[in-house]
Design a protein that fits this description.
Strand order of the largest sheet: 1-7-6-5-4-3-2
Helix content: 10-25%
Order of helices and strands: EHEEEEEEHH
Shape: globular
Largest sheet: 7 strands, antiparallel
Oligomer: single chain
Structural class: alpha+beta
Number of helices: 3
Radius of gyration: 15 Å
Distance between the termini: 26 Å
Length: 153
């Protein structure tokens, strides 16, 4: 598995940054190669991606979520194997640090080549930069989910 770690500071309050991240169906607006994310229920999302001309579909499960602190997920079905956590840290009243740590198992020839050439790292860096621009330029979040999901619960 390849580990990707990327951090960005966003010029919005902690609550705004967290709330926006919980709007999974908005991910195609700032994540390269993500064509669609459909939220199935409070824990599960269905993803459709197209990266390097290769279309993948997979489902993720949120295994731990604490408002304004973290969201942890893993794939449970489909063409992709990954898991990760996004952490939110208040810097002051108007700035938040968002840190993404993700483990990805490249599954095909194209994904393995992308891993070797650093494309996965660059994509994560670009996605986080675009998240910053997306949430800052909106002036507020597009929605919020403030529930709690506990591991194993």
């Amino acid at each position: 598995m390849t580990t990707v770690k990327e951090t960005v500071e966003v010029d919005v309050p902690l609550r705004t940054a967290y709330n926006q991240w919980t709007q999974f169906e908005e991910f195609p607006n700032f994540m390269e190669g993500v064509e669609e994310v459909r939220q199935l229920d409070a824990r599960h999302n269905h993803w459709i991606t197209k990266i390097g001309g290769i279309r993948r579909e997979f489902d993720t499960e949120i295994v731990d979520q604490l408002a304004d602190e973290r969201i942890t997920w893993r794939t449970v079905d489909g063409d992709t194997q990954q898991r990760g956590t996004v952490h939110f840290q208040r810097l002051d009243d108007t700035r938040t640090r968002v840190e993404l740590v993700m483990e990805v198992e490249p599954s095909g020839v194209a994904e393995k080549a992308a891993d070797l050439t650093g494309t996965i790292d660059r994509r994560a860096k670009g996605d986080m930069k675009r998240f910053k621009e997306f949430v800052e330029n909106r002036g507020g979040e597009t929605g919020a989910w403030r529930g709690r999901i506990r591991p194993g619960g």
